[in-house]
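Two folds, back to back.
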Amino acid sequence: MTKWALYTRYSNESRSYVMSTEQSSKAEARAYFMGIKRLNAEQFDNIYQVDLMKESKSDPNKGLLLG
């Protein structure tokens, strides 16, 4: 499984992370997020985008709270 992230889509090219899921394909991740947000394809595409979540190069045992 691959980890996919949901980001908000802004007109000024900046975006914010919303949530992530592990799915087999981008299409499956998109369908999952559309179901969670209860939006049709057009509404979803105007607000969000789905991208592959990149793995962090830092220590995987280090959490946000541990710094």
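---
second:
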Amino acid sequence: MSKREIPFLYGKEEMNVRCPEKNILSVVAPGAMPKGKNEEELVRNALKNPIGSKPLTKIAKPGDKVAIVTDDHARPRVGWKMMPFILEELKTAGVRSEDITIIMGTGTHRPCTKEECEHLLGKDVVANYNVVNHNMDDKDNLVYIGMTSRGNAIWINRIFAQADVKILTGHIAIISFGFSGGRKSVLPAICGRETIYYNHQHDWITRANFGSLENNIMHDDAMEAGHLAKVDFILNVVLNLEYEVIKAVAGDMVTAWMEGVNYARELYTVPLKRQPEIVITSGGGSPADDTLFQSLKGFQISYLLMKRGGSLILVANCKDGIGDKELEHSLKLGPEEMFRQINEGEHVHFMADIVNSGLEKAGEVFLKSTLDSELVKECGFVPVQTVEEAIEKAFSIVGKDARILCMPKGLYIAPVINQ
């Protein structure tokens, strides 16, 4: 039987997977992507020519307290490509360095270490500016700013809420919110636990579509939170698969971001002819697959594409383990107990909710990782030593003629099934 060798992102390297040629429905890959030439020029031009907004030099003034939200360790490392130029603009406006606070938008993630902050932002930035981690559970440092139309009480980081000038930075990519960037740097990045979990509730998160903003309640709710936070300015970038900046947008939280979204949509969505019986997906490579928590975003997009009763194979290194104790506890409950708790209004980890929704749809979910096999089983997955082993086991469930969708770049490219 003829087999094709397909490189999947796995940790900091690639893992070659041998897949039967006759079974391959599609290997999801982006179209021609630009190279990241003149990244600094793209960022500078965006700041000098903002969309729907005055430039930062006209917004900030001497004496202003400025708060800037930036992506944490679980996201691509792009802060260092943006932050120096924002700080340069603020200096031109007369803002003192001691009046600027950079907030690591950790959301539900662990705090960044000093070394990680230096890696993300640059040592000079960390040495000369106040850099702090957001903590969703530190209620003394949360401020209530209002209620969304869907009943979400928005509690956000106190430093950001009380700043005179509020700036969001980040990258635009496909996620369950539709696209990252923009308002996502408010919710979930700098919100309190209850606010985040309200936005990530079962009915919303299991209906959200990657790469789509239409009828996406999570996105709508987060956008309202962004407006309540009174964001003054954003700087977002679109990256190619080498994490190079290929477009930068700055200015208004909605209009500037939407220009970036429209560009990213063309790059990161691809058509798919039909639903597959088997999906093989990557957790996205490091840092996206350093923990099972982050790797599950690859799972999240994949199970929605798969036929009911099909098999899903997740290729994720998980070198740092599960990555969240609450997630581990919720996964170990199993689908039946977890859904019982949800129906009774009890709190479970939102990502476990996604996993168990996928487990309920799938015939089996296989995990190729570095995690202990017993732990993998306790979390509801079937551990495998190789992806080829998983493919053979999947064939035994769905049949030898099953069509396979291969997603070697994981969550970075979103297939859209043609209706």
